[in-house]
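Quarterly update from the structural biology core.
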Amino acid sequence: MSDEFLTRLQEQPRAEFAERLEARLREVDAAQGERARRPAARLRPLLAGLSLTAIAAAFSLPPVRATAREFLDLFRVQRVAAVPVDTERLSRLELGGFDIKGFVGSQVEVLEPAVAPETVESAELAGSLAGLQVREPASLPQGTALAGVAVGHPGAYRVRFDVAKIRSLAELMGVADVTVPDSWQGAEVEVHAPPVVALTYRRGDSEFRLLQSRGPEVALPDGIDLAELGAVGLQLAGMSADEARLFARRIDWRSTLLVPIPLQGGSFREVEVGGRKGVLVTTREPRREPDGTIKPGRWHSVLLWADEDHVYALAGPGHGVEIVETAESLR
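Predicted structure, tokenized:
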């Protein structure tokens, strides 16, 4: 809160890149050091955070109302695709004492503060408060029961591009060949994340959590080339310039939500939910022994998909079999 997918280039990295990714994942699985396991521990919070903010990433986009600035590019989430990212880059920045929040903080303006999830009595009430028709599973894993319902409000914010800072960040991350056009200076992106409904189900000490929301509303100003902007983001995430350009040109940025998947510590693949393409991410949680050593723990999976103008995330224990079956039963 990564082995599956990469078969359709329209939404996934090319085969050569997938092969290198899988090879690296196997190396990480074989490694026994704590350093090799650390990214896996980060994957779950990363995806959970992504879901709890209604997956309001910079490239997930449904229609938004017109504003005084007359944003011209309006978007809608229709599908989900995975993109591998190199979390080691951010780790190196953190170890070097770099404060990324402080670095970009002046470029982010909060338009509507996020509100912590509020527990409510029922899914029906949650849907009423969130303004959506809440879907519930008709079939749950054996021994599982509803344990709680909550509604969260991720809020809204505006990001103002600072070309010099983007270039500096790329240099610090070791991305020397990234191209950031001067024309981006001062361009603004607005993100409005609709309310999120969270349904929590428990079975013993295991927990399944279903998150659902309308797609986030993202608006870009006229003159921004989405593929060009996407290529820059993909390079910062860990792709080479050629890989980023190829991926950026093949994807439909106006309808595709990208899910960041760390290169280390897990597996992911493409699955179908109700005829829609989704991404299933599986990781093995690290377990700390009494003597302080870190050993592999239980498996945990997160399934993310979109259906019409709604986005969903379903997380729980195991390799994803129960999760996919539960997702297929949503009514």
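The first strand starts at residue 3 and ends at 4.
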